[in-house]
């Protein structure tokens, strides 16, 4: 290519023009975003339907409702799957934005690493909350259904 030849926009230059061996992580990221997006739609609308429309609707949402949901393994897995997919999907989207707009390689690396560290911490914390949730820990002496159940178990 001569010096007076115009290169089409967005043509990879330098290291970016050479395809590295190994898995194409950008392609797998693209596929993940589409699959997780569809799964998230199903999970979120199922979550909203059960929480807001089934039974007494939104007026039934209280501590006892959440305690009842988290005592069932099905809803624990449902909510953890929704949590994991939402955080990974969102972090991957933010990673794509950072890769598109941050030109300094060191700054980009710091931002992407911090995104994944924060997402990993929040995923671990959220998973622990869902699987270790115990409705009998708070001091429930107000005559609620949860207080009666906790007294019956203890």
UniProtKB/TrEMBL annotation:
<feature type="transmembrane region" description="Helical">
    <location>
        <begin position="110"/>
        <end position="133"/>
    </location>
</feature>
<dbReference type="GO" id="GO:0009055">
    <property type="term" value="F:electron transfer activity"/>
</dbReference>
<dbReference type="GO" id="GO:0020037">
    <property type="term" value="F:heme binding"/>
</dbReference>
<keyword id="KW-0249">Electron transport</keyword>
<keyword id="KW-0472">Membrane</keyword>
<dbReference type="InterPro" id="IPR014312">
    <property type="entry name" value="Succ_DH_anchor"/>
</dbReference>
<keyword id="KW-0812">Transmembrane</keyword>
<keyword id="KW-0408">Iron</keyword>
<dbReference type="Pfam" id="PF01127">
    <property type="entry name" value="Sdh_cyt"/>
</dbReference>
<dbReference type="GO" id="GO:0017004">
    <property type="term" value="P:cytochrome complex assembly"/>
</dbReference>
<keyword id="KW-0349">Heme</keyword>
<dbReference type="GO" id="GO:0006099">
    <property type="term" value="P:tricarboxylic acid cycle"/>
</dbReference>
<protein>
    <recommendedName>
        <fullName>Succinate dehydrogenase hydrophobic membrane anchor subunit</fullName>
    </recommendedName>
</protein>
<keyword id="KW-0813">Transport</keyword>
<dbReference type="GO" id="GO:0046872">
    <property type="term" value="F:metal ion binding"/>
</dbReference>
<dbReference type="GO" id="GO:0005886">
    <property type="term" value="C:plasma membrane"/>
</dbReference>
<feature type="transmembrane region" description="Helical">
    <location>
        <begin position="28"/>
        <end position="50"/>
    </location>
</feature>
<keyword id="KW-0997">Cell inner membrane</keyword>
<dbReference type="InterPro" id="IPR034804">
    <property type="entry name" value="SQR/QFR_C/D"/>
</dbReference>
<keyword id="KW-1003">Cell membrane</keyword>
<comment type="function">
    <text>Membrane-anchoring subunit of succinate dehydrogenase (SDH).</text>
</comment>
<dbReference type="InterPro" id="IPR000701">
    <property type="entry name" value="SuccDH_FuR_B_TM-su"/>
</dbReference>
<comment type="pathway">
    <text>Carbohydrate metabolism; tricarboxylic acid cycle.</text>
</comment>
<keyword id="KW-0479">Metal-binding</keyword>
<keyword id="KW-1133">Transmembrane helix</keyword>
<keyword id="KW-0816">Tricarboxylic acid cycle</keyword>
<feature type="transmembrane region" description="Helical">
    <location>
        <begin position="70"/>
        <end position="89"/>
    </location>
</feature>
